[in-house]
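Give me the 3D structure for Tyrosine decarboxylase.
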Amino acid sequence: MERELRPMDAEQLREHAHKMVDFIADYYKTIENFPVLSQVEPGYLQKLLPDSAPNQPEGLQNVLDDVKSKILPGVTHWQSPNYFAYYPSNSSIAGFLGEMLSAGINMVGFSWITSPAATELEIIVLDWLGKMLKLPEEFLSSGQGGGVIQGTASEAVLVVLLAARDKVLRRVGKDSLKKLVAYGSDQTHSALQKACQIAGVHPENCRLLKTDSSRSYAISPDLLCEAISHDISVGLIPFFLCATVGTTSSTAVDPLLALGKIAKSNGIWFHVDAAYAGSACICPEYRCYIDGVEEADSFNMNAHKWFLTNFDCSALWVKDRNALIQSLSTNPEFLKNKASQANMVVDYKDWQIPLGRRFRSLKLWMVLRLYGVENLQCYIRNHINLAKYFEGLVAGDTRFETTMKIMATN
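Predicted structure for Tyrosine decarboxylase (410 residues):
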C-alpha cells in the first residue's frame, strides 16, 4: 500500500513550531559569534547537499542540523549587532511574530473579498503611519488617495512611474512614449533607472542631475529648471521627478518644497523616496526633513529598513489612487464580485505589479501595537544619538574627515 501524505495536525504543528522557535531564539542568542560576512566560496553548497530530493521524509531535527552545519555558514548575518552595511538591522520580535501569524493564516489578499481583514487592516495601519509622519490628508484613505504596502521601494517607484507615464500618455498620445523624460539626481537610487527600463522610457531620457558637496549632494532646483527647459525646447515631455530623503551613498536630503513647486508648474509627477530616512520623521524634531511633501504626488518609506518590521514591508502613499488603478487594473471574470463592482472596497491588486499579495499589514500592525509610538520614537532617537557619538569619535581622529552633519535638527 502506498504511503499517504497527511496534512500536519495541530499537535504536530505545535511540536515542530516549538523546535523551530527554539532554533531561531538560539540563533539570535549567538548571532554575534558568527562572522558577519559569509566566508564560503561560490558553489560551496552544491558540494554539501545531495543532487536530488529525498524519496522518503526526513525528521525536522535532521533538517535543522543541516541548517546549522551547512546553511548558516553561507548566510550573511543581517541582524548581527556587528552588521553595518546597507541599512540598519530590520528585525524585531513584534515583526517576527507578525510574520509568523501571516505565514500561518497564509491567505492571498489580492482583492477585498479574498480576505476582507487583510485589505482593511492595511488601510488602517497605513493611515496610522501616515498620521505619525504628519502626511497631508490627501495621502490618507479618507480622501482620493491612500496607502499600500509594496514589497520594496523599487516596486513603489515603478508603480508610480507607470501611473505617471500612463497619465501623461492619455493626454499626449501613446506614440509619445519615446519623448518622456524622468528626472533624479546622480545620488538617486538605481531603482529609478530600472523603473524607466521596465516602463519603456528611453535610457537616455532618464536624467540624473549632477550633485556636489556644496549642496550636501542634494538636487539643485536651478539645475533641474535648466534641464526641464532644455528638454521642452527640443520637443521632449518631462513627466516624472524622483526626490530622495536619505540617499544611499550620503543620506542626502533633496529640497522637497522647491522641487515640488517646479514639478507642479510643469505638470510633472513628483515622487518622494524616503525609503531609508523617512522613519526618522515620526519624531517631531526630524519631521522637517520631509517638509514640502505636501507638493508630492506620492511618498514612500520602508518599514523594513529602520522601523523594526521584518522584510518586506515598503509603505507607499499616493494622492490619486485612480492614477494607479487606471494603470495597473485588470478585471477578468474570475476576479469579479459584487463589492468590487459596486466600488465599495479597495482591491490592492490594482495598486501593484503582481496579482497575489501577502498579509503584510499584520507585522506592521503588531510593531505599532507591541511597541507604541513613543517607544518607536525613542528607538529612532537612540540610533541618531549613537550616530552623533560616532561622528564625534571620527572628528576627533586625524585620520578621518567628516563632511556632513548627522541629522542636525532645524
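The chain has a mean pLDDT of 92. Let me know if you want a second pass.
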